[in-house]
Fold each of these.
Amino acid sequence: MHHTVLDAAFVQDPYPLYARLRREAPVSRAVTATGLSVWLVTRYEDARAALADPRLSKDARRIREVLEIRGGVRVLDESIIEHMLNSDQPDHTRLRRLVGKAFTARRVEALRPRIEEISAGLLDGINPDSEIDLLTAYAFPLPITVICALLGIPDADHDAFRSWSNTIVTNSEPEEFERAQSGLVAYLVQLIDRKRREPGEDMLSALVAARDDGDQLSERELLAMVFLLLVAGHETTVNLIANGVLALLRHPDQMARLRADLGLLPSAVEEFLRYESPVNMATFRVTAEPVRIGEVEIPAEEVVLVSLGSANRDGDRYGDPDQLVIDRGLGGHLAFGHGIHYCLGAPLARLEAEIAFRDLLTRFGRIELAPGRELRWRDSQLMRGLVELPVRLTPAE
Ligand code: HEM
C-alpha cells in the first residue's frame, strides 16, 4: 500500500503526484505535512460522488473526535468551528438559510457597481510602467474590500486580517498559529459587540439581529459564521485572480484570444478555476461509517481528503487536462465543491473575477512576469496560492 507524503515539494507542484495516483492508486493513504494520516481521493468521478455522500461527515464534533484519534493536526478553536461548512443536516440547512439570500446571483449582481468602483480605485493606485506584486496591489485587496463592505468591517482592519488569516491557513508554527487564532477571535467578539450596540445596514448587523430575535443561531454559531465568511471570502478569490493571471502568462495564445474577445470571460474564469483550483484539498470529510469509494473500502472514523485540484485535471473527464483552454465551456469542474456544501460565494467569486480580468486586460496592453524572479506557492495544504506575483504592466494605448 502506498503511503504518500504530502510534503513541501508536493505543495510546489502537486500535479505529477496527482497524475500518478489517479493512474495507480486513485483512493490511497497519505500523510499530510502536519503528520495527519488521511485517505486521498484523486479521480473526478470518485471525488464528485464523495462530496455528495452524507456518510462522509462534516460535523464539527465528529471531526474533532476523529482528529483527536488520528493526531498530528491543529484543530481550530471551539469558538469558531460551528459553522455551516462544519455541519451535516439538519444544522447545515438552518445555518446556510440564514445567509443564503444575500448570495444569490441576483443579489450579487446588484453589487456590480460597487465592485467595479473598488477595482477601478485599486488600479488607479498602481503606477504603470513599473514592477509590482499584483497580489498585494490588486488580487488581495479586491475580494477583501468587497467581503468587508458586505459584512460591515472597517477598511482599517484589513491588514490585520490578512496576517491572521494567512497564518491560520498555512503550515505555521504552533505558537504563531495560536496567536493568530486568538487575535482573530478577540477581534470578532469585539466587532459583534459593536454591531449589537450600533447596528448598520450590513450583513453582520443582520446576523446579530437574527441571533438576538429568536433561537435560530447561537452566539457561538454567530461567531463561527462570521469567521467562515471572512476567511472563505478572502483566502480564495485572491487566488482565483492571481492563479488565473499566471495561467494566462504561461499560455500567451490564450491571453491573446481572451484579449481579442472579452465575451469569453465567463468561460475563461471557469477554466481558471479548473486549471489551478484555489481550494486544492481543503475539502476534507470524516467517515461516519465504512464507505466504499471506487475500489477501496474506507473504515469508519477516517479522514478523507477529496482533492479538487486533482479531480479537475483528470484526463478521463477533460481532454488535454494540463492545458489551459479558455473556451472549454462552462461548468462541470469541482473547484467550488459539490452537493450541500457547494460554495455559497460562487456567484460573488465569479463576478469579482470577471470584473478583475476585464479591468486588467483593458487597462494594461501588456502584462508580463517580472524577469529573474522565482515563483513560489504558499506552504498550505488547503489553498493553492502564490506567495507573490511580480509583474510588469504596460498601459493600453
Ligand atoms: C464552500 C471554494 C469563494 C463562502 C466552499 C467549498 C469550496 C469553495 C470548494 C466547499 C468545501 C467543501 O465541500 O468541503 C471557493 C472558491 C472560491 C470561493 C474556489 C473563490 C474562487 C467564496 C466566497 C465566499 C465563500 C467569495 C463568500 C463569502 C463559502 C461558504 C462555504 C463555501 C460559506 C460553505 C458552504 C456550505 O457549507 O454550505 N467554497 N469558494 N466562498 N464557500 Fe467558497
Amino acid sequence: MSYPLIRPRRMRRDEFSRRLMRENVLTTNDLIYPVFVHEEKGRAPVPSMPGVERLSIDELLRVAEQALELGVPVLDLFGVPDPAAKTADGRIAWDPDGIVPRAIRALKSRFPELGVMSDQALDPYTTHGQDGLIDESGYILNDETIEALVRQSLVHAEAGVDILSPSDMMDGRIGAIREALENAGFINTRIMSYAAKYASAFYGPFRSAVGSAGNLGKGNKFTYQMDPANSDEALREVELDIAEGADMVMVKPGLPYLDVIRRVKDAFGVPTFAYQVSGEYAMLKAAAANGWLDEKACAMEAMLAFKRAGADGVLTYYALDVARWLRED
Ligand code: PBG
C-alpha cells in the first residue's frame, strides 16, 4: 500500500500548522464603515438592514468615537436629505450647508485623525432617484452630470473630506474631478472611484436607507451601471479611472463579484476595494435572525474571501462588528 504519500491533511491537523500556512489575514486596517447621516434628530433604524441606523450629526460623532476606539480607519458618509428638499437637478447635493458637508466639518474638527470619505452621486437628492441629471426621455445626461459631480466634490473637499468616492459611473468624471481638485489646490484629496460598479439588484436596502427607493420606483440604472454579465468591461473601466487620476478603485457589489476583484488586482496592482453592499448584509442578517447561519462565522468568512480575492480593504456595514470580533479572538 503506497498511497497516499502526499497528505495535505497533515498540515491541517493542528492549530499551529494551520496558522503557519495561513495565506491571508484580516485586520481592522482593512475596514471602511459606511454610515447614513440624516437631517432629523437622533437615530432611525433602517428596517431592511438590522443594526444599521440613520444618524444625526451628534449621533454620528458618537459612532465615530467608537470606530476610532476600535481601530477602524475610515468612515464613509451617505447623506439622507429632507425629502421635501429634493429637486429634479438634485442641487442640494452641492449646498455647502447640506447634510454631508456639515457632517464632514463636524467629524474633521472633532476627530482630525479619523479618515473621512464621502459619496458623490445625485440619487439621494433627486426627485427621480437617478444618480445624474436626466433629459425629457429620462435618459441620464453624462457631461451635464459631471458638472454637478464636480460641484459636489469641491464642496466636500472644501469641508475637509479626505477621500472622495464618485459612485455614479458617468464617463470621464474622475478626470474632471481630479482636474478641479488640482486647480483648487486640493492636491491631497484622495479619490476612490467606484470603477467597476454593476447594475445590481443587491442595492435594494441601501435605496431604502437613503430614501431614494420610492423616487426611483420601477426605474433602473442599466444605462450607466455595468451589466452583471461582463468582466472584460470592468478592466476597461478601471483602466480609464486610473488614467484619469483615481488613487484607489472599487468593485461593487462584493461577494458575487470576487472574480472581478481578482482580475482587477492582477491586471493593475493598485489599491483595490470591495463593497459588501446592503443586500449582502441583509441576506446574512436575515439568515442569522432565523437561526439558519452563524452570523459571526459567515461574516468573517466573507471578509477573508475579499482578502483572498485580492482586495486591500472592504466597505462593510459589519465594520464595527468585525473590529469587535477581531478583538475577541
Ligand atoms: C448611489 C449608491 C448606491 C450604493 C452606493 N452608492 C446605490 C445605487 O447605485 O443605486 C449602494 C450601496 C449598497 O447597496 O450598500 N450612487
